[in-house]
Amino acid sequence: MRGIPLKQSQGFFWVNLSLLVLIAGFMMFFYPLTGWDQVLIAPYYSKAAQIFPLRNSAFMQNFMHTGLKDVTIVVAFLVLAVFLFSFKITRLAPCRRQAAWIFVGMVLAASAVSVLKQESIHACPWDLVQYGGTLPWLPLFAGLPVGIAPGHCFPAGHASAGFGLMAFYFGLRDKQPFYARAALCFGLTLGFVMGWGQMMRGAHFLSHTIWSAWVVWMVLFFLYLFWSPVGAKTKVQIQV
């Protein structure tokens, strides 16, 4: 038995842990058999031209890619500003720890996805042979074939910026549960919108986006367990 600062109840821990395990199992063992990645990306690929026509679209590049990512960066810096100004502005002081937690959570979650992506052997769809590229498609747990360069395209880095806003859910859930749930819905929605936009461009499969959401959620969940956004609480004994 080990004491872990667990908010609300053991139920929160087990529900989240169970969801993480179930989703990981689904994505590892069942999802690859469905062919959904190929089915969902097919409408955005031109077999005749052997390209993804929306890859260089001004709207997709400037709004869906750069614009939405910039929005998440602005949000992160606004949260950091709240933390810094809380030392000068008295009414912001109660928000200091939550702001620090949310900012750190956003940075850690995005960094985790970025590191995994840099170490990944999997290529982006637009680099795959079946979509006019030169690299082979590889199963999730495949090794890198001799003579093939790593693709560095898994999981979806762009979508992780949107999913990172789920940090507000964990940061707010103990004091402002209504806003926490709203933030959860918004973060999930924005992440999948950003991921779908990248799929339309040929940059990622849907599975890349789902795995990105999973990694972000896992990082935020365990950060929440071991560092409370609202201060020390009663420790609950759970079997680990």
Strand order in the largest sheet: 1-2
The helix-strand sequence is: EHHHHHHHHE
Report low-confidence residues grouped into runs of 5 or more.
Answer: 1-7, 234-240
Give the radius of gyration: 20 Å
| Mean pLDDT over the full residue set | 93
Overall tally of domains: 1
Question: Cα distance, first to last residue?
Answer: 6 Å
Mind explaining what this structure looks like?
The protein has a single domain (33-44, 52-139, 149-230), classed as Vanadium-containing Chloroperoxidase, domain 1 (Up-down Bundle), CATH 1.20.144. The termini are close together. 59% of the residues lie in helices and 2% in strands. The protein has helices at residues 10-34, 36-41, 58-85, 96-119, 157-163, 167-172, 177-201, 206-226, and strands spanning 2-4, 236-238. It is mainly α and 240 residues long. A two-stranded antiparallel ribbon has the order 1-2. The model is unreliable at 1-7 and 234-240 (pLDDT under 50). Helix 4 packs across helix 8 (206-226), helix 5 crosses helix 8 and helix 7 (177-201) packs antiparallel against helix 8 (206-226). It has eight helices and two strands. The radius of gyration is 20 Å and the shape is globular.
